[in-house]
């Protein structure tokens, strides 16, 4: 029977994952840093198999450089969903190429410091990602509202996976110091699993998958007249213009439509309703869906698209969150309530 070392199995899975993300991104602008991260991790896994499965020694000089490139790619992928950078693309590349450049120098002059440098790079970029996400789902100003909750959770998991990678590197460091090379293969196997977790998370954020909604803060009273005016403007846009039907609606687009700063909109909605902007917009979508279910014979899938949702899983989840029932159950109940009292099936 053909034996394939585990790192090569991981490589194959990552290549399949990359192909899936590319296909899903056909209808939306691709998140190139996330896609590059998937390919880089596939390369890392392949190099791990060559290094530890076939004892190809020169690979050991390339592996740490590739490891130093992964955290910057994760950060750049998140940054594309959060905000537009004030730096030009060339300056961004130069800035985030510094970690890899540092490792190249260490490979040449101070190899014993490489492991520590990679650990610090992982921790530093994980902290930077968490800082970008400190305002919760509303930080994802460039992501459509329908995907904000999923992407937020995926990004937090990615930051956690970077911290896990740093922990694994620390463990490997001590294992080599205390136990020698005999346990290295087992540790590297788990390291590959951690890399796969990072990539799966990045793919989830890039390919617009979905997850349960986040909790929100308790309802707070309006602080200022400005909050009331902002909320009134948002309500008018939703009720009069039906802006929630836009499947690509996000916080930045909403801010442009209203000519109101995105931060001001987010704060006003949160203080007035205790909800984030994504939940607030989805409540308008579900409200119209309820009306269409009760008053028309349109299929549920058609209604889902009409009100601004893109996937049935997210539509059903949000519908149950808001109405505590399913779309079909809502339709059946509405028809029973609208049936004249005392009327029998024999009439």
Alpha-carbon distance between the termini?
A: 72 Å
C-alpha Rg, in Å?
25 Å
Biggest beta sheet attributes: none
- The helix-strand sequence is HHHHHHHHHHHHHHH
What CATH architecture of the largest domain do you see? Up-down Bundle
Strand content: under 5%
* Secondary-structure content class: mainly alpha
Low-confidence stretches: 207-220
Relative helix content: over 70%
Overall description:
This protein is 71% helix and 0% strand. With 347 residues, the chain is mostly helical. It has 2 domains: 6-206, Rhopdopsin 7-helix transmembrane proteins, CATH 1.20.1070; 225-338, Arc Repressor Mutant, subunit A. The chain is elongated, with a radius of gyration of 25 Å. The relative contact order is 0.09.
Keywords:
mainly alpha; elongated
Strand and helix map with partners:
Layout: H1 6-24, H2 32-53, H3 59-82, H4 89-96, H5 98-109, H6 114-132, H7 148-178, H8 184-206, H9 225-241, H10 251-258, H11 262-273, H12 277-295, H13 300-306, H14 312-323, H15 327-338
Helix pairs in contact: 1-2, 1-8, 2-3, 2-8, 3-5, 3-6, 5-6, 6-7, 7-8, 9-11, 12-15
Brief characterization of the structure:
This protein is mostly helical.
């Amino acid at each position: 029977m053909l034996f394939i070392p585990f790192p090569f199995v991981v490589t194959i899975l990552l290549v399949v994952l990359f192909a899936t993300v590319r296909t899903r991104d056909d209808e939306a602008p691709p998140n190139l840093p996330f896609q590059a991260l998937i390919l880089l991790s596939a390369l890392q896994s392949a190099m791990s198999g060559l290094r530890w499965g076939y004892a190809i020694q020169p690979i050991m000089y390339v592996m740490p450089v590739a490891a130093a490139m992964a955290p910057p790619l994760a950060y750049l992928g998140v940054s594309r969903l959060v905000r537009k950078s004030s730096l030009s693309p060339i300056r961004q590349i130069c800035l985030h190429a510094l970690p890899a450049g540092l490792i190249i120098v260490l490979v040449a002059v101070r190899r014993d410091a490489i492991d520590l440098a990679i650990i610090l790079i992982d921790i530093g970029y994980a902290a930077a990602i968490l800082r970008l996400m400190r305002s919760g789902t509303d930080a994802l100003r460039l992501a459509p509202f329908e995907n904000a909750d999923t992407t937020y959770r995926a990004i937090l998991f990615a930051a956690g996976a970077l911290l896990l990678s740093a922990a694994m590197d620390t463990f490997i460091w001590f294992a080599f110091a205390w136990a020698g090379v005999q346990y290295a293969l087992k540790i590297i196997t788990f390291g590959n699993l951690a890399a796969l977790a990072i990539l799966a998370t990045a793919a989830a954020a890039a390919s617009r998958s979905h997850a349960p909604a986040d909790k929100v803060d308790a309802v707070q009273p309006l602080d200022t007249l400005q909050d009331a005016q902002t909320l009134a403007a948002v309500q008018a846009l939703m009720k009069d213009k039906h802006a929630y039907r836009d499947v690509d609606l996000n916080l930045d687009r909403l801010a442009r439509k209203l000519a109101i700063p995105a931060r001001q909109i987010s704060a006003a909605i949160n203080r007035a309703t205790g909800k984030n902007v994504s939940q607030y917009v989805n409540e308008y979508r579900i409200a119209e869906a309820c009306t269409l279910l009760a008053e028309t014979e349109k299929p549920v899938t058609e209604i889902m698209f009409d009100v601004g949702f893109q996937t049935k899983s997210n539509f059903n989840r949000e519908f149950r969150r808001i109405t505590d029932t399913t779309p079909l159950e809502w339709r059946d109940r509405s028809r029973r309530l609208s049936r004249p009292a005392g009327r029998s099936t024999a009439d």
